[in-house]
Structures are given as structure tokens and as C-alpha cells.
Protein 1
Amino acid sequence: TQLPTLNIEIENKTISIPIRQRFQTIMKEKRSNLCLSADLTNLDEIIELSKLVGSNICMLKIHSDILTDFSLDKIQQLKDISRKFNFLLLEDRKFADIGNTVKLQYTKGLFRIVEWADLVTVHVLPGECIVQGLEQAAQSINEPRGCLLIAQMSSKGAFTDNDDYVKGVVECAKKYSDFVIGFISQSRLTTTDKFLHCTPGVHLNNTGDQLGQQYVTPRQAIDERGADILIVGRAILDSINRAKTAEEYQQQGYQAYEEIRKI
Ligand code: S5P
């Protein structure tokens, strides 16, 4: 099945860009492999923050279910900003149910995620039916949609630390590679550049938090953990100057990415 693509008008000619290609173009054009994890509970604040750091990031990740002021109007504003500053919106929903249920969770309820999130995160615990359900639901929307499979987690003692499980996730990605554009991972899982490896647990000053999070530096994430994209939350959010810190992570991250991946 062919997924819908984003139609962009350029000099009166309409071209279609699949989401994987769009992501790679954004990274190159903006010289950024930084995804800001905007784990704030107020969408108005996220909207303001996204304007402040919009030019430094290739993706903004949110958890819509922690927002106290979610509305479809406000999320549309965030979507407009993402188009203006040219970054993708990732809803870190971590879907983990049977195909039929995730289809409903993706399209219905308060959040109607499929209408605004370019990408979503997905656990493959239920088997490949979860990806089938989401991919089917995405076809109701006339814009490109994709997902990142959670292959490995950054938290201490994660049960994803199991070779057979990770192999299964990679097989699933290969089978549904129109819709699956990459992984949430802690190591390089494939030799091809087809799948983007997105790595959380990145901080320059801390090694962890009180609840099992484990951090490495941007360079370590790319060199030792095989990251293409760095997912950075509190290192930026808790800093005194968020804009300046985001710029630092962008610069350090992209420099290491160019050197190590030789792009
Ligand atoms: O393995 C994971 C997967 C994810 S998506 N470990 C993670 O930390 N995350 C998410 O990345 C987590 O839900 C949070 O939103 C972000 C990391 O935030 P930080 O403040 O620790 O950088």
C-alpha cells in the first residue's frame, strides 16, 4: 500500500515528499539532528518554546497526555509553527496494544493524534499487528505519516535489553518500511541508512536521574550508541537559557554526526 505524501507547491508544480526523505532533507538543510523533548505540561509554553528553538531543531517531541491545556486549536498552532520552522512533530505515545485498539487511540478521543503528529512512537510488544493497525489508520489522512519503533530503552533494567526482542523489532521495521522510518534505540541496529536511529538519554552534565534514566553525552550517543537523532529533554528544559543550550546541543550534535557518520 502506498502512503499519502505531503504535497508542496513549488513554482506552481506540486511535488510529493515521503516523510523519510523530508526528515533527511530537514536535517541537512538545518544542520540539525536535535529533537527537543518538550516534556512540559502546558501547551502554550511549548508553543512559545517552539518559536524560540524552532530554527535549531529537526523535530519536536511531545507527550500530549501530560498537557493540562490541550486543545485541537492549540495543537494546530504548534503544527503551523512546525511547518514555518521546518521541523517534524513527534507524539511520544508509545502505543502498545492490539491493532484495533491502537487504531482508535491514534484517530479518536481527545487528541486525534493522526491529524497533527507527523510521527508516533510504537512498542512492538503485541507483534506486527500494532504497526498494521496504525498504518491503516494513517491512510485516512492526506498527509505523510510514519512511526518510530521502540527497539531499546534508555532506562536502567529495561526489558528491551534482549537480542531476540530487538531482532524482532528490526524485522518488523523492514517488513513495514513505508510506514516505519526508524527506531528509538541505544545502539546501531541496521547497516543501511534507511532507518533513522533516534536516541534519548542525552545530557552533557548529568549521568542519570532518580528514576532510572541513564544519560550519555551527544558524542557518545552518536559514536557509541549509533544515534542519528539526539532526543534531549531536561538538559535543555532545565537550563537557564533554553535557546542558547538548544543551540549548543545542535552544534555539538551535528558536528559529531558529520564526523562520525561521514555524511
Ligand atoms: O528509552 C527511552 C525512550 C524515550 S522516547 N527513554 C526516554 O527517555 N524516552 C523519552 O525521552 C522520555 O519519555 C522523555 O520524554 C525523553 C527524555 O527526557 P530527558 O529529560 O531525560 O532528556
Protein 2
Amino acid sequence: MTEQQRFDERIAQEIAIEPQDWMPEEYRKTLIRQIGQHAHSEIVGMLPEGNWLTRAPSLKRKAILLAKVQDEAGHGLYLYSAAETLGCAREDIYQKMLDGKMKYSSIFNYPTLNWADIGVIGWLVDGAAIVNQVALCRTSYGPYARAMVKICKEESFHQRQGFEACMVLAQGSEEQRQMLQDAINRFWWPALMMFGPNDDNSPNSAQSLAWKIKRFGNDELRQRFVDNTVPQVEMLGMTVPDEGLHWNEASGHYQFSEIDWHEFNEVVAGRGLCNEERLAAKRKAWEEGTWVREAALAYAAKQNL
Ligand code: FAQ
């Protein structure tokens, strides 16, 4: 049996591929790309929420937000470790992100303008991330699948705290209710864009599905998110900013309008509202952290003497 046949058999039998196993070069490259982008998303994703750490409305909310942002750093670290098992160096893929040569999720290029945005990010953004990541718990590469299990548990807590923060606003003053609706209006479509282009325009999907890196297409997961979330919007007494949204009796799903793909493509190409600001913040942190990395390395070298 050739190495390729052994690999194909493992994929067919749902046996995880592990770092020491032979794998096609393209499989390895696709995983480094996806896991790397996923890791970058967690790290850049700390910025929009970090913006509100000093302005959270109470000590309780500040403590929760601090823990959530810290979890995101942890998720980034697991994911960089998972990527490294494929033979890449984290410094290298991190530098690619800083140079704009590797992507991170489009969602983090939108600004967080008011406190309701923080509740809505937990509820909608983590909610969308969970739908995608629960599917990835069964991805074919072992270290990625295992990282997803722990990450999903933490994201699930994030999603609930986000919904709870939104519930408080929904039961608050008229001004608070308007703030919540405004945040939903701004984050609804970007959250739907997190699932990527339509399947017809998704160059990586067919091969990633065949290799079981992806378990479902982008459209199916996006639909799952809409079906889960519309009743939650209604429960809050809020509305979805989509006049075309309706329940389709025949399909058993909510039908929604076409996404603004021009906006999606612009944001992914680096021309979103906050792309420059996000990368500038990460470059500054990297440069200003040089002495910390040097000191840590010098300390480690001394310990090994
Ligand atoms: N933004 O052929 P496809 C989080 C790119 S959750 C930017 O469909 P693929 C938690 C795509 O990379 C967010 N780029 O690609 C959190 C590809 O570009 P390339 C992170 C996007 O990979 C919550 C090209 O378009 N989650 O961070 C986007 O098969 C709250 C063509 O697309 C993950 O990364 C986009 N939205 O499917 C943190 C999940 N969509 O590389 C803080 C893992 C597509 O060929 C606060 N990733 N692109 O130049 C995946 O499941 C997949 O990579 C998809 C895209 C579904 C995102």
C-alpha cells in the first residue's frame, strides 16, 4: 500500500491524521493556511473587545470581559501550536499576518462603537464561531480537532455571557434598547460573512471537504447560524436588519437576502473600516514587545546553563 493510499484510507475511515503521519503536501499547506488564519483571528479578535476593557459599565462586566479576552489569547496559542505540528514556525506565519500576507477573519475589521457591541460580539460573533468550530471538532487533523474541543467549551461560555449582556440591555431603558438594536444592525451581516463566500465561489471548499478538513460547506453552516439565531433576536424583542428575511415553510429554514459580497471582498482585501488600525496595533505590540521576548530568551538560556 502506498503512503497516499494509507492516507486516503484513514480519511475514509475517519481515523485522525497525526503530525508524524505522511500527508499530501497540499493537505499540509491547506491546514497551515486555515489553522494559521484561525489563530490570527483569535489574536486580532482581542482588539475590538480590548477597546472596552477600561470602559465596561461595572466591575462584574469588566472581569468577565477580561477573562474572555484572555481566553482568546489562549485559543490563539493552542492554534499556533497546532499549526507548528505541521512544520511551520509561528514567528513566520505571525509575520505573514503582520505583513498582510495571511488573512484573519473579516469580522474583526469592524469597530466597536458602544457597549452593546460587546454583548453582540459575544452573542453573534462567538455564536457564529461556535457553529463553525463545533463542525471542526471532527476535522481530520488530530491536533486541530482536539484544540477545537476545548475552544468550543470556552466559546460557548462567551456566547452565553454575550446573550445575557444583551438580555439586560433589552430589558433596560429605551435608549439601551436602541443601542442594542444599533449593534445588531451593524454586526448581523458581518457575522454572516464570517462563514466565507458562497459555496459556488469558495475555491478551497471542494478539496477541504474531500479531505474532511471541512465537514460542511460555508452555506450550510451559515444557514445553521441564521436558523439558530433569528428566534433569539425575536426573544430579545429586536429585529434582524434584513427585510427579505422570512421563514420558508417548504425548506424548513429561514430564507435571507443576498450578502453584500462587494463589502465582504473589500474587507478581505484589506479595505475594511479597521483593517489598517488592527494591523498597526499588532505591529506596534510586536515591536514594543521585542525586549520582553529577548529577556525571556536570555532568562531561559541562563536556566539551561
Ligand atoms: N474573513 O475558499 P474559502 C474567532 C478567505 S472565529 C477573512 O471558502 P476556506 C473566535 C479564505 O481564507 C473566526 N477571509 O476558504 C472569536 C480564503 O482565502 P485564502 C475565525 C475569509 O478556508 C470570537 C478565501 O477567502 N474562525 O476568531 C473569510 O475553505 C470573538 C476563499 O474562501 C475561523 O477561522 C472571512 N470571513 O473557508 C475571537 C474558522 N471567509 O486563504 C474573538 C476556521 C473566507 O485562500 C472574539 N476557518 N475567507 O487566500 C474556516 O472554517 C474556513 O477557513 C472558512 C473559509 C470557513 C473561514
